[in-house]
Amino acid sequence: MAGNRFKRALGALLFYLAVTTALLWRPLFRGEALVPVDHLSYAAPWSAHTARDDRPRWNPLHYDAVAQYWVFRQFATEEIRAGRLPLWNPYQFCGAPFIANNLSAVYYPPNLMCLLFGVDRSVGLIAAFHLLLAAVFTCAFLRTLGYGAPAATFGGLVYAFSTWQISWLELAPFIAASCWLPAALLLLYRLRRRPVAVDTALLMGVLALVLLAGHAQIALYTLLTSGAFAVYLAAHRKCEKNVRWRFMGSIIAAFLGAACIAAPQSLPTAELMAGSHRTGGASYEGYAAYAAYAAHPSALVTLFMPDFYGNPSTGPAPYIGFSKGGMYFNYAEGAMYVGLLPLILVLLGTQAALHRRPEARFAVGLASAALLIAIGTPLAAVLYFGIPGFSGSGSPARILVVWAVAAGWLAAAGFNEVANGTATAGVRCKTAGAWLVSGAVTIACALAVSRSLLGGTPDISPGLSMQLAIAALSVLWVIGSGSPRLSNRSAIPIALAVAAVDLLAHGVGYNQTGRPSDLMNAGHSLTTVLRSAEHDRIAPINSSWSFAGPSSVLPPNLATALRIRDVQGYDSLFPGQYKLWLRDRTMTDPSPPEVGNMVFVKRPDLRLLNDAGVAIVLAERPLSLPNTSVANVDGVWVHRRLAPVSRARLTPDHAAKGSVAWLTDEPTRLRLRVTTNTPTQLEIADQYWPGWIASIDDDTVAIDRSSQVFRRVSVPSGKHVVVMRYRPSTTYIGLFLMSIGCGALVAILIGARMTRRNRASEAG
Fold it and tell me: Residue 692 phi/psi, 5° resolution?
């Protein structure tokens, strides 16, 4: 029995490995990184080296993979290798908290691969690792529910390789947070049957990893789903009262322990969120904007045809998807597709849940709620108004991750019905017929809606023949699976193959790869010039950014990759005071209309350049700036200021009576020698934020604000060494709580092991 179970588990793992390899063979075997480097060809200096016709189709979320996630991983890895905890990023927003933005995911253990193998190699390995985890955990969960090995393997395939997971794969924190959801469900189910310390500790660890993975919204969906499942299990009438109380106690302990372990990430994030550009409570106006960015109900057609509105990565048809409010809508935001055969089996699984599979009723409710929230029904308001801070989250359609796991669960239930012969021929035929009719009606309605909103119908001919072939195979399999000519031994691999080919056919070409070394080499001459600014800053002037494809110079965050201090920035969380300062200086919104998380310098304001310590200004064309030398380097107009105001300077009244010299200029530690004949003030054009402390000759001094957002300290006359360090209390409190949580987890595991050993010795 144990041997057969091991063979089935090994078979499932090898199957998932094969599918993962087919999907990610380029980053795994060709040395390419799972990073869409070619998207930089829209911006200078890279645009100077790429013909316009050679540019990939613009996908804003894919651009985030290179301009945010790859850059952040690279920065964090370099800092850790230098022996520093990357608490602060001095290269964007004139300095900003780094770890406090949960996208940094510095404490997430799998990201240690970046230290071992380098970032370029690791991004593909990390993606493959999480895909395997998602598949294996789903399979294990379904096996624990009592589903057969083939059905459980099928369910793991559906969840891990659904279009939602693949569409977000290059944005690592999404799958890093979502892959642990089936593991949490598995442990909750085991705890409900028999609350034991080991499973409590494992659940604690899983929930902590969810919180540390790097995406708050997906982590929230994972925690909400886990909490709802726990309540569902506790409320079950077969749950004995004493078991119910022990079960709830285990869950509370696991959640509290997970919160402690994740505290070094969550506490700084909470502090940054309170003062971020997203600050602001829920409002009816805000909810209207939030719901308007939900998936349009006509997007349900992508359950049958994922590329109905085109695809931003593959095929000749451009992507023309739109949100519920008629706005631009990214392909990944509305990724509902789980495969054609799985969708038929979801219908069979739903019927089974209503009659023979009571545990799957939770999956039916989960799938229904997720789809209703994704398309912006009033159910979305429950999350928006009911959860503090949720109003600052992204599109409602991101809850489709919950639909994907529920679909995998129900597809496995339906597969089990077919494999066990429980579903009669009549039921299978009726289900297949209902699926065909619903698909035809949905497609017809979507065509009508598109004609009304877009003034025409999408070109659905690309890939249509493939969809029809897969649909035919799926229907034939469901109807004919009970035939004596098609035994389970042959039917099972056919179903797995059909579903795998279906999902891979839509996913294998979606995520682009490249060699990030090209990122550094394309503008080598420009990089050399920019680094001559040394301790001072650069200011690219950018006023054009669009979801249709930007035209820009050295976009935000790319300076971080080059280790050059920039005035711009792009992050999901950053201090709101900085955005207000830029707005006040330039008298215009520094963010493009489409992206509130990005701030530019849209026009060269001399006061802004002086306040921020800018030595070099970049632009797509020559600017009329006084007292500058101008040259074109790598297709970029470089304006070098001949008499810039330094990033570190004495106040104007005393600048002529003293001097400032840099001794150390590290991300979290600055040392300067100040010589002055009279008491003065030292201004540092780095952003003021709680956690920065200053000392003069080892005596602690207060830091004041300068120009609304920068730092200033008072310096007595004479020669002194001024030191500024970033030591946020939230980090140290968080590390203390993490040590308690990890200690509790280890103690529980050791105690459980000792208990088992004592029982074994007593039994012997």
Answer: -80, 130
